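Sequence, structure tokens reproduced for reference:
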Amino acid sequence: MNIKEMYLAERPREKLLERGAGALSDGELLAIILRTGTAGVSAIDLAQNILTLLEGKLGKFSGMDVEKMYSIKGMGKEKVAILLASCELGRRFMEGSSYPTSNPLTSPKTVYDIMAPKLKGLAHEECWVLYLNNSQQLISKERISTGGMDSTVIDNRIILKRALALNSTNIILIHNHPGIRANPSLADIECTQQLKNACNTIGIHLLDHVIIADKCYYSFSDEVGYDE
């Protein structure tokens, strides 16, 4: 159905202004962002086609191949760019409001809250490091590497060189597992021990290694006491 054929109170934009954004479905919110449809396809229909491609899970959007978006009738460069920008703004909003940098970073759950907006839904692995001071306050969070679907490179030299440059005495390693499983692989366990040993040689503490999946996380400090 064309949006102009809908009752005025049920049109997505009018409905949002009247009832608030929380009253709208994912499809209706997408339709507002898209603004218009294309020949024979309304913005509502186009939004539903996008949700079908995402299997109804908006979190999959950030990891989707751009070429797949173009496969949807009516999704040209402008509309793809608008959706990508909207997704990135959402990430940055969540990241910016997730945790005050002046507070000590003391729990794996807090690490998850800080990093999940960046890592959930990705189709590839990324490795990040949180650099902390003596009081475990966040100095910087930085991506160290980007990999494939089931691995990424963790270069101890890069991590330690950056820690020394920032005068960081505590670090937390983070990487993601695309999908729903956060349990570490044998390679994850080995690289964590290697980084811990390297940190010990120069007086830096590896407080934790947190693996983030789409709906859960795994903390080495919780499971095996890497902060001890």
Remarks:
- DSSP finds nine helices and five strands in the chain.
- The mean pLDDT is 85.
